[in-house]
Amino acid sequence: MKELMVAGVVAPGDEIVWADGEYDAVSIDFTGVDGEPGKPITLRAETPGGVTFTGASTMHIGASYAVVSGFKFLAICDETAPWKVISFRSVAEKEASHTRLTNIVIEEAEAGPPVLKNSKWVVLFGQFNRVDHCHFTGKRSHDNLMTVYLDESPAQKPAWHRIDHNYFADRTRGALAGGSTNGWEIIRIGDSKTSLQQALCRVEYNYFKRCNGEIEIISNKSGNNVYLGNAFVECSGQLTLRHGFGCLVTGNVFIGSPDNNYEESGVRIIGPDHQVIGNTFAMLDGKDTRGAIVLSEGVRDGLINEYAPVTNALIRANRIVHCEVPFVVGSMHGRKAKGNKQVDVPPSDVRIEENIVIGKSPIFQMLSQDEPGIELVDNLAYTNVGEVSIPWNSEFNTGFTVEPMQSADGELADIHRHAEFIRQSSGPAWLKP
């Protein structure tokens, strides 16, 4: 183990510079002293990208007010793979806070099929940490690429982490490894047992390309998180509000593949008080649990790890362009739950307003058996039929103004340019041409 126990050696504001080169099976424990606000302790590569860690290398960061920058990890995918490649907690379990991981690359050492060996690439503990301008590609091992763990003490302190301007790409469908098809997410914030806690994390301006591990690209399992300005391109999955409450999904763009064979999706809403505002969904070919915007059913008086009913949701000012199913109502209906219960509580107190839908009808796929509590207000549809059919109350005002179908070629070009702008701003500067 390479221990960076630097108390008495460095002081707030100092830099520790790691000499360029390739290092195999290195275990780094960066702990023993903290920086100060405005004077972080920095651990960096001599040259950005000039230090490569291979084999079962790991880094534990137990320093607060610190910066770690410029390293490259070639991750392995076999029985020797570490459970955590980079952790915001020291070996002695001192958690970092106000610490930044930036300009880091982790990529799979070699190509191949996915395997069931559990290995997380980045694990966040503590508070007020940031992961930005990093590059993560090709993860073949089972388990989340990035996991945020919340405070399980009686204080239940929110995490307040920021995950921004990162590049995530090329995760193969986990089902090809056999075993469980669950746990192949790119990012998970919280877990079932802490899902009623506030996390207050921000996931913003990240780029996701061909992230096909499972249905959940991002798995939200905590409260009051913000997902802002991210791009999801040709991904077989979705941003899933699986547990938790009061999250905001805004300004994101979801773009499908022209091949239409990836079961691409957008956002799936589960639980109370979520808002999906001002997002763009284009050419997504998923349906059922993989529509553009999916409202799930829930379990009445279910356990904390089951599906909470959708209540008090706001879906406003989104653009849905040439998607197979713009809105799914009541996904998961009829699924068995514990205690001889079922997933059978339809969404309620949902407001769908000021959205624009361009494409073929029908706009809604209705999976609920009972009438949901959904109010439709001032939506606009450019479609190939004279009216929008509302499966649960079509005899009433639909809440949609219908206009003749128009070409969306210009709009699709703008959407692609938007996603490309996000891509260009993601990842380390030293990887740019």
Index terms:
433 residues; mainly beta; Pectate Lyase C-like; 14-stranded parallel sheet
Share in helix: under 10%
**CATH architectural arrangement:** 3 Solenoid
Uncertain runs: none
CATH class: Mainly Beta
Topology, number of strands: 42
Helix tally? 1
The CATH superfamily label reads Single-stranded right-handed beta-helix, Pectin lyase-like
CATH topology: Pectate Lyase C-like
**Quick one: biggest sheet?**
14 strands, parallel
The radius of gyration is 22 Å
Number of domains: 1
**Which range does the strand content fall in?**
35-45%
Spatial strand arrangement across the major sheet? 3-6-9-12-16-20-23-26-29-32-35-38-41-42
Structural class assignment:
mainly beta
Average pLDDT metric = 93
What's the short version?
The chain is mainly β. It has a 14-stranded parallel sheet, with helices on one face. A 13-stranded parallel sheet has the order 1-4-7-10-14-18-21-24-27-30-33-36-39, with no helix packed on it. It has a 13-stranded parallel sheet with strand order 2-5-8-11-15-19-22-25-28-31-34-37-40, with no helix packed on it.
Overview of this structure, please?
With 433 residues, the chain is mainly β. It has one domain: Single-stranded right-handed beta-helix, Pectin lyase-like (Pectate Lyase C-like, 3 Solenoid). Helices cover 4% and strands 38% of the residues. The chain has 1 helix and 42 strands. The strands form 4 sheets. A 14-stranded parallel β-sheet has the order 3-6-9-12-16-20-23-26-29-32-35-38-41-42, with helices on one face. The two termini are 35 Å apart.
